[in-house]
Each structure stands twice: as structure tokens, then as C-alpha cells.
Amino acid sequence: MTRLVTRFHNGRMEDANTKPGLEREMKRLERRLDELVGVVAQLKEENRALRQRQDSLSADRAILMQKNEQVRARVEAMIGRLKAMESGA
Predict the structure, then answer these.
(1) Which of 1, 18, 22, 33 to pair with 49, CA 20 to 30 A apart?
(2) Is residue 60 part of a domain?
(3) pLDDT per residue over 58-89, tens digit each?
């Protein structure tokens, strides 16, 4: 038993199994598929750029944490020297 598919198009019912209806549907699906392929490509590029940005920010963060630790060590050393000077005075 064949299944009859009808669509309402331009104010009239048409059989999607007819050649013109099938061709129209195939073209519509082809356009939609092309759109989806474009979206996938765009999302892949965006994802690549975001990963690159994340890597860059992670590297920047590591550098800042290292500098912060160096500054902390210098400040602690200065505090130690000040306390030593204070107790020696």
C-alpha cells in the first residue's frame, strides 16, 4: 500500500508524490541542507576561535599568577627586612 502525501501549497492541495511536488520538496530539502552545512562550518570556525582564545587566556592567567607569586615573595621579604630593622633598632 502506497502512502499518499499531500501538502497545502499556494492555496491548493498538491500531491507530494507527483513529479513537480517531489522536485520542489527535494529542492527545498537541498536548500535546507546547504544552510545546515553552512551553519556547521560557521560553528566549527567559531569553536576553533573560542578554543584558541581560551588557550591564550589560560597562558595569560598562568603568567599573571607567576608574577603575582613573585611580587608576594618580594613583599614578604621586605616585611621580613623591616621587622628585622625594627627589632635591631
Answers:
(1) 33
(2) yes
(3) 999 999 999 999 999 999 999 999 999 999 86
